[in-house]
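Let us begin with a simple case.
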Amino acid sequence: MTLSENPRILVVMPAFNEARQIRRVVEAVRGQVAGDVLVVDDGSRDDTVVEARAGGAIVATHPVNLGYGAALQTGYRYALRHGYDAVLQLDADGQHDPASIRPLLGALAQADVVVGSRFLDGGSYRPPLLRRLGMWLFGSVASALSGQRITDPTSGFQAISREALHFYSHERYPVDYPDADVLAMVARSGLRLAEVPVRMLPSPPGKSMHGGFVKPLYYVFRMSLALFLVPLRREQR
């Protein structure tokens, strides 16, 4: 993708009960990118909507919690409908450092999907051991399926071209955990996939999508099945 001299960028931030930090995160993001910020409130029960608007964000609201992937898709479809050139997506909990936004967007000149990796260039972020093993396993499978190395298959810190937004907006996109399987599908579809080093902080206590006992088991089952099905699908742009 080649961005125009003044591309229209939409920052998409899915949010669920993030009232305590969402305003600060929105303000920090707006200080790094000259574009609109869309917070997709996924059925929050706190003041996420009020705080996001106070920070200067546009807000789209789901009446009930539909899932992380569904919230992202709302953002993708909004971007396509309103003519944005690219999307920059990041989490609303403050884990993704806004200072890494510009390298992500800059890499769109040579790619359609740019993933921010916390493990490139000797990154200092270290997730818990079991999660690190899972990331290595699914990253290895995704790398084999895509034909290129993927170091951070669970990163939600991404820059996405308008062409890739059409791919992401399709019903193939999972509503719960869009991770390694999506990256493998992107590469196999002919879209250009790249990674750049970014800085990430540990997730706030109790905020991880993979927390608890049941969620990690479901994630492992769901991702294993999704990756198994990738070679059986004919991905088209």
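The second case is a distinct protein. As before, the sequence precedes its structure tokens.
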Amino acid sequence: MNDIIAEDVNSQSGQPPLGDRNKPEEEKKRRGAIWLWILAVLLFLAALVAGAILYAEQATRKVEATPAPQPLEAAPKPVAEKRAPREKVENAYFFRIDGKDAEGRAASFDYIIVTSDYTWVKGSTTEVVSNDTVIPEDEAADRIITPKVRESFASALDVIAVGLASREGDRAAEEERALARAQTVAGWISKVTDASIPLWTLTLGQYDRGACKAQQDADSSYERPVLLASVRARGDGVNLTEAFSDAISGHDNLPSRNCYSQFELVKIR
């Protein structure tokens, strides 16, 4: 009976049952949870995008800050030295060399180095030793300037007597000795050549091994050798001193101008 009365009361009041009244609140909460979840996802995606942008910006700045690698510079190539053509003629070696003066005028030379069988007696300006025996002065011209060498002088435009001294001793004294030796060689040349051929002396002074790399070999010596030279060809007005200095330089089998303390060419005939 009481139950019937309660139902009548509820029906008469027009209000839904208690369970139905709770459903909108639960729906509201559910929708709020969905929106919170959607917001969290959006925030997470925004964080990912922002992180990617920040990483890209940092990478770009790093690339810009890193200097571009500089191209490697090629190591300077050493100046190539050439080998002077050499020919053995009896007791001497002929080096065929060419040079130019400061104005570009050319000249060609035979640089003649008597083999190491013949060298100046140490300290002497007139005596040459061969196989430990001093050559008599009156025989020196014929024994050193052999017939084949004389033939080359016969067709030369100029002939040059060269003198030098060894590295030992006072420089001034050795340079005087070099000049005296050039004059001795000029005397030998005068005996075996025609007087019409111009004759020069070339004083090289003192040999400087410290400034000259070791280019000598077992066949010849550049410290106390007997040296001669001739001019095979020359341009008009050529400066022979400059052209000859240029000619002997830049060879791996000849001493350069820097190997000696002087380079003085003087015409004496």
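Residues 1-12, 216-220 have pLDDT under 50 and may be disordered. The CA atoms of residues 150 and 192 lie 7 Å apart.
Keep these points in mind for the review questions at the end of the chapter.
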